[in-house]
# Entry
Amino acid sequence: MADIKKHWYKEMAVYQIWPRSFKDGNGDGIGDLKGVLSKLDYIKSLGVDAVWFSPLYKSPQKDYGYDISDYRDIAPEYGTLDEFKTVLDECHKRGLKVIMDMVVNHTSDQHEWFLESKKGHDNPCHDYYFWRKGKNGGKKPPNNWRSIFSEPAWKYDEGLGEYYLHLFATEQPDLNMDNPKVREEVKDIMRFWLEMGVDGFREDVITFISKKENLPNGIPIPIATGFEHYMGGPRLHEYLMEFKNDVLSKYDCMTVGEAPMMTPKKALKHIAEGPGQELNMMFHFQHMEADSFLTSWIRRPFNLKKLKKVYANWQEGLYGRAWNALYIENHDQPRIIDRYGSLEFREASAKMLAAMYICQSGTPFIYQGQEIGMTNINLPEIGMYDDVSTINNYKLGQKLRLSDKTIMKLAMYASRDNARTPVQWTGGKNAGFTGGEKAWFHINPNYTEINVEAAEKDENSILNFYRKLLKFRKENEIVIYGDYKEHYPDSDKLFVYERNYEGKRMLVICSFCDKPCVFKTPEGFDLGKGRLEIASYENAGNTGNNFILQPYECRVYMF
Ligand code: NOJ
# Structure
């Protein structure tokens, strides 16, 4: 049995707020801190221990806060720094920790550093970014890189006669982390928030911050050409260690790094416990690729075996050595019920998916609206979308000569806007999201049925199931610290695993089947001797060791 070290970041569950769509408190149609304040008791009632705020900072909002123009202030549409301090205080009073999004791979093109850097080569901020002369007498970009948001990764600046690098939107210039002054700035920003009392950071695309020297051409692909030269780049370990040694280690805080294309083996080099640990955990993407490849826009049929394999690799690979971050939704992913569950069996599949991931080893993250089973909005026309990556992908689809019908089919399924619709609080006007006339973005018309108010009234709602699960996790160390062993890896209907900890055993049974499905208890277990702790169907009695699972049913037994 591996020696598991206990820590608060391992025991907590986190609720993610994407501020613009969480709750409007001042009637302007945009979510804000006043709205957050009014819902802190609700958040606490879920049984979570922390809130992660997607960026609240000042920003032109070209990528909804991930383009920061002032790291030390709050966007006026969300409130003021004083209001943030009140939220922080009120969270702490309720025993909720606060995790800030730290976006330092890039800034906004409206950040003072960038505005300065454009002024000339001798400006002190010039080398904060990647400025390069074009090729062919300046007419062609310095290399063939393409941004993650499907456009060339270089933008020409008339004034300087040079190009700057942006791995995301044009308005998100990449910071040059090789410049020690930039690293000092980053550390100062971290200190600023930690001194204020925040409890940690979710570090945005942190594995992109070191680019290969001389920025060589990449393998040409339509999206993210060049990624092999900045994904886990040459000085990444060095920079992460510097942030840790100079700042993070001096505070009782936690970090979770966002890490596209990460594998367990590579992750261990960053998160293995011990003196060389750079981050506490990582958000990888592999389990979000059971129905897609690299991005939800490149689709393939949902494959349960693939999903289980990924989980087994991470669960077994990290156990006793490092810690998992568990999530199935966030502001970048379409809603999970539409993807891995079933709209027909929305309630059952939402509950099953919740148990499937929350009962694994790791820190669970729950994205706003996930706890009531919100679904994709499926907007039918491109003009209705707002997300920069959706609009760029649409244009790319046109360039690739895909039919409008095909592109829209992809957008309806894959767009990030699906997860960015306002939270559905009530069945009333504007889903109770805003008291004003209109919400900033489309509200999913299913709010009349799917909303927090209705879920509160129903003892068997998805919401109350999440509460039960989180309470169960908190009360049973095995759910947090137990090991992981998968059963029936070849089944394309069932996801079954056991956990073991200090003499206790737990069996998690999940059906991914939309029809009744035969279940045979794995060898070594006798369900008659176990306690049924979590059940998604009301009438799930003890039915021996072989029985029929209802569509998308899940059960958790403890021994
Ligand atoms: C990852 C964030 O989650 C996403 O929303 C953002 O667009 C990119 N990083 C760029 O910051």
In short: The mean pLDDT is 97.
